Amino acid sequence: MRETEAVTRPTADQIERLFVGSPPRHTRSEVSGRAGVSAELAQRIWRALGFATPADDTPAFTDADVEALRRVAALLDAEVIDEETVVRLARALGQTTARLAQWQAEIMIGTMLDRSEPPTDKELAGVLQTAGALLPDFERLLIHVWRAQLAAAGTRLLAITDMNAETLPGRLTLAVGFADLVSFTQVSRSLDEQGLAELVENFESKTSDVVAAHGARLVKTLGDEVLFTAPTAETAARIALELVDVIRDEGREVRVGLTYGPVLPVMGDVFGTTVNLAARLTAIARPCTVLVDQGMADGVAGSSGLTAQRIRRRPARGLGMIQPYVLRRS
To answer: What's the whole-model pTM score?
Structure first.
């Protein structure tokens, strides 16, 4: 761009053209008709992806939208998957990519713009230009990482079924862990917005690194709390103890609750009594302490360098009296 050219603020059309490509030219009825799917299914998929439903006569869909729906129609015609599966997959894709896109946008803006000053038109144009330059490489990287994550998910499931021949795909036996930052509410009151964001991001990045290093899975983050799963009790135990050390080295304290038992996987999350009990154990754990249930205690028995010491029974909301154990290095 020549210095004499005026720099204008990027428009919504420019942003959409950069990331999507062709401009919207098809209405709701046109996109479903050209793709060969029912208008009802097209609308369900669009909503599942997380997008608002446009008016009937509004050209809101691109040629790429038509092509994507055609691929869906081909899968349905070949009876590879049914409509309900299509909608569920669309919802998984929409929710995951929405969070990914928002997260990446925040990283780019935070890196390139001064948070303390309103951005100028030139700065906003610079962000868009940089995003456009990075887009081709990131698109290839995204596909590569997605395939690698699919392979990892399949490998984890295979390992779980190998350990327990009776395990059903919809009902897994896993170790579940909650890790919670101690005194988060009190600490957050003493920080400004930037400091709070850095605290949360640092906590999430440290726990993510530890969980990944042990071949386990970080299920979700909740600001001051993370939920992870591991295929074995021993793996979860070593993750928990390392988390305590890593966070303590950062000048913070964490407490962890671990359980081992059946869980129900739904939409990438896990549910069930095993998960609830892990949360309750975290709530009653002392700072820099790991509390585990009977299943975990049995699971680490005989493991080198690990011991689980029984303590007094405690009441747990919704679960009655429970028997905790303190996990330590022996």
So the answer is: 0.73
